[in-house]
Design brief:
The protein is α/β, with parallel strands linked by helices and 177 residues long. The chain has one domain: P-loop containing nucleotide triphosphate hydrolases (Rossmann fold). It contains 6 helices and 7 strands. The protein has a 7-stranded mixed sheet, sandwiched between helices. A hairpin with a 5-residue loop joins β3 (47-58) and β4 (64-69). The chain is globular. The protein binds guanosine-5'-triphosphate (GTP) and magnesium ion (MG). Guanosine-5'-triphosphate binds next to α1 and β3.
């Protein structure tokens, strides 16, 4: 992949906002594979991704971003290794209103350990409007315990600016910014 063609992968738990984030910023109609959820549907979450999301975004600097989203559900995790191939960076979205957001983060850091070591990652914490805790300091404390230096930002996946900001932070780490 050329240096001005950058594949990024969004991952994170179910409902964290991967599909929403890609739709918020994509300049093409997103390709997604969402289906109605068989169980656990809530008022604002009727669908879940079974294979992938795909969108594109061209930055002012001319770089073209190819944005892939993974399914959140563990039972579709065979897609994760497929989707990271050729990827240059990882965006981990964590729903702060879940039962154990730091535990969720731990699982994604484990599952994508090698990819993160080879590339780089940023963490976006969503739903902080509904659930302000754990706060950022708790995330940083956890990362420190694991010996990881990754930036953490509270974001709203529905907000284009906040998703773009997260991506800019990742590109800066990857030295494309
Ligand atoms: N209140 C609030 N809602 C949010 C925020 N970010 C995303 N959402 C909502 O949360 C839901 C996220 O759903 P999806 O984008 O389908 O989540 P996903 O991560 O793709 O989920 P799976 O594909 O099932 O793994 C949507 O209804 C969003 O509108 C946020 O920061 N605050
Ligand atoms: Mg999705």
């Amino acid at each position: 992949m050329r240096k001005d063609q950058i594949k990024l992968v969004f991952t994170g738990n179910m409902g964290a906002g991967k599909t929403t984030a890609i739709a918020s910023i994509s300049e093409i109609p997103v390709i997604n594979t969402d289906v109605l959820m068989s169980s656990g549907a809530s008022a604002d979450k009727e669908r879940t991704t079974v294979a992938m999301d795909y969108g594109e975004l061209t930055l002012g600097s001319g770089e073209k971003l190819f944005l892939y989203g993974t399914p959140g559900q563990q039972r579709f995790d065979y897609m994760w290794q497929i989707l990271i191939q050729g990827g240059l960076g990882l965006i981990i979205l964590i729903d702060n209103s879940g039962d154990d957001p730091i535990g969720d983060l731990a699982r994604y850091l484990d599952s994508f350990h090698d990819f993160i070591q080879e590339t780089g990652a940023v963490i976006g914490v969503t739903h902080t409007d509904d659930a302000p805790r754990p706060d950022l300091q708790m995330y940083y404390h956890y990362l420190q315990e694991r010996g990881l230096q990754l930036p953490v930002f509270p974001i709203d996946a529905r907000s284009r600016e906040s998703v773009v900001m997260l991506i800019q932070a990742l590109l800066a780490i990857l030295e494309y910014g």
